[in-house]
Amino acid sequence: MIGAARLGLAALLLIGLSACDLGGDTTAQILTRQQAIDPPQLWLVQLTEVTPAQGAAVFVCADSALRESFVRARAEINGQPCEDTTLPLLKDREWVLSCRAHGQAFTVSASTLGDLDRDFRLNFALTPLFDANGVGTVRQSRRFRLVGACPAGWRIGDQAKPGRRPHRART
Question: Which of these ranges, 13-17, 84-88, 95-99, 103-107, has the smallest mean pLDDT?
Fold first, then answer.
């Protein structure tokens, strides 16, 4: 009786394991399906305050989730992320929040201009709340332009300076 129970349990385990393989998706199949639903697009991102000779441009392969992050730039002060201390206040195409890095409080604000689906500019500002060092507000403006489909072999999150091979995104 015990032998029959073990045999039945072994059969159930084999059926269960084989069912996992039947119709199971590999990572490549999942990626292919995801890209068919939300095709990755190649974007050119340029800092607008610098000359092209300074190399402040990068191509980015992005899906819709990554594209949404384009308009929600995060601040980093001397390599340390500025941790949010308030929720963002959103209004139309603008947002503002407070954050803290290196023991100092800052205000982060951003606004967008243009067509978010094809060609737009993000204006970003970081202001110390108590500016004892006299640094003042740091501003940056980035232009995002849709180029087209990501080149063959590029994955979502891959980036490259013009004329260079892409850096692989972490998976």
Answer: 13-17
